[in-house]
Amino acid sequence: MTQGETVPHCPLCHRPIPEDVPQSLHHLIPKLRGGKGGPTVLMHHICHREVHAALTETELARHYNTPEALRSHPRLAKFAAWVAKRPPGFRSKVPGGTRKC
Question: Which domain holds residue 42?
């Protein structure tokens, strides 16, 4: 990152995402639900894993296809509040159980 550039921030937890921390692109509409080539957001890897642990691809496509909608989900809101208190490079297994099928 050169001088003057800003560090991106995770749309779920709002923490900065430095280049040296695990990160991934999240398709706001899952690729298998018509989102291939669609909008993506850069997230911490731990936040991205929690999104996919909490929601099915159908739920993501239909109801949680914006950063605001993701933050409004009760489990993701609770996770975001918890992880926001950790440093940007924090790693952990995804807390809680996997999504209900």
Answer: 24-83
Is the residue at 68 inside a domain? yes
Residue 49 lies in a domain: yes
User: What angle do the packed helices 74-83 and 45-54 form, to 10 degrees?
Assistant: 160
The string of DSSP codes covering 27-75 is ESS-GGGTTTTS-EEEEEHHHHHHHHHH--HHHHHHT--SHHHHHHSHH
**pLDDT tens digit at each of 101 positions of the chain:** 556 578 899 999 999 999 999 999 999 999 888 878 889 999 999 999 999 999 999 999 999 999 999 999 999 999 999 999 998 888 876 555 555 54
How many domains does the structure of the chain reveal?
1
Residue 9 belongs to some domain of the structure:
no
What span, in angstroms and rounded, lies between the C-alpha atoms of 24 and 75? Answer: 20
